[in-house]
Design brief:
Shape: globular
GO cellular component, one term: cytoplasm
Main location: cytoplasm
Keywords: Acyltransferase, Cytoplasm, Transferase
CATH superfamily: Bira Bifunctional Protein, Domain 2
Number of strands: 12
Helix content: 25-40%
Radius of gyration: 16 Å
Catalytic activity: octanoyl-[ACP] + L-lysyl-[protein] = N(6)-octanoyl-L-lysyl-[protein] + holo-[ACP] + H(+)
InterPro entries: aa-tRNA-synth_II/BPL/LPL, BPL_LPL_catalytic, Octanoyltransferase
CATH architecture: 2-Layer Sandwich
Order of helices and strands: EHEEHEEEHEEEEEHHE
CATH topology: BirA Bifunctional Protein, domain 2
Number of helices: 5
Number of domains: 1
Strand content: 25-35%
Largest sheet: 9 strands, mixed
Distance between the termini: 27 Å
CATH class: Alpha Beta
Structural class: alpha/beta
C-alpha cells in the first residue's frame, strides 16, 4: 500500500527562503504533522557550496558574479560547489527514512533513478558514475545531487538541467572536477523543453521509485 506524499511547488524561490522552509517541514515531519513532502522550485542564479566544497572552485572574480547577478551561499548539503538558476528544476524531498530505508546510499540511488527514468521519457540514456553522485548523458552531467539528513529526515535533494544557462557552469569546477562537462534537456533535444511537463514527469517517477502516492499541489 502506497504512503502519501505532499507535493509543493514554490516557483522561483530565494535559496535562503527555500532552506528555511525545508527546516520548517523537517520539524513538522518529525512531529508527524505532515506526510513525506516533495518540494519543487527554481532558484535565481546562485552558486552553492556544500560540505566538501571550497571557494577555490570558483573560477571567476567576484566582480563577474556581481555583474551576472549570481550569489554565493555556503550550505549544509553533501558535495562540492554547483550552480542553480532559471530553467533548472530543484527537487527537495522531505522524507522520513525510518519509514523507507535508513541508508544514505539508498536515497542517492533512488534520486538518480528518478532522473534516469525521466530521461528515458525523452529518449535519452542517463547513467550513474561511481564516487560522484548525479546523472550523466554521455560524458556530460545533466543532474547534480546533494543531500542532508536530520534525525533520519532527508532534505536538499537533486537538480535537473532543463533549459538552463550552461555558460554559468564555466564559472566553477563542478564537483571539484574542471574537466567535467554539463548538459541540459534543451541541449540534448536541440530545442527548449516544456518545464511544466518535466515537473509532472518528475512527480510521477518520484512516486513510482519511492512507492508513494503523490498528492495534489499544495500552497506553501
Amino acid at each position: 500500500m502506497y504512503r502519501k506524499c505532499n507535493v509543493v511547488y514554490l516557483g522561483c524561490c530565494d535559496y535562503q527562503e527555500a532552506y528555511s522552509y525545508q527546516r520548517q517541514l523537517i520539524c513538522k515531519r518529525m512531529g508527524y504533522k505532515i506526510p513525506d513532502t516533495l518540494v519543487l522550485l527554481y532558484h535565481p542564479p546562485i552558486l552553492t557550496i556544500g560540505r566538501k566544497g571550497a571557494r577555490g572552485h570558483i573560477l571567476v572574480e567576484p566582480e563577474v558574479l556581481r555583474r551576472e547577478g549570481i550569489l554565493v551561499y555556503e550550505t549544509d548539503r553533501s558535495g562540492d560547489i554547483t550552480y542553480h538558476g532559471p530553467g533548472q528544476l530543484l527537487a527537495y524531498p522531505i522524507l522520513d527514512l525510518k519509514q523507507h530505508v535508513k541508508d544514505e546510499r539508498w536515497l542517492v540511488n533512488n534520486y538518480e533513478e528518478v532522473v534516469i527514468r525521466l530521461l528515458k521519457d525523452y529518449s535519452l540514456s542517463g547513467y550513474r558514475r561511481d564516487k560522484c553522485p548525479g546523472v550523466w548523458v554521455g560524458n556530460r552531467k545533466i543532474s547534480t545531487l546533494g543531500i542532508a539528513i536530520s534525525n533520519w529526515i532527508s532534505y536538499h535533494g537533486f537538480a535537473l538541467n532543463i533549459n538552463t544557462n550552461l555558460n554559468h557552469f564555466s564559472y566553477i569546477d563542478p564537483c571539484g572536477k574542471s574537466d567535467q562537462g554539463v548538459t541540459s534537456l534543451e541541449k540534448e533535444r536541440g530545442a527548449p523543453v516544456d518545464e511544466e511537463e518535466v515537473r509532472e514527469r518528475v512527480i510521477w517517477h518520484f512516486g513510482q521509485v519511492f512507492n508513494l502516492e503523490m498528492l495534489n499541489y499544495l500552497d506553501k
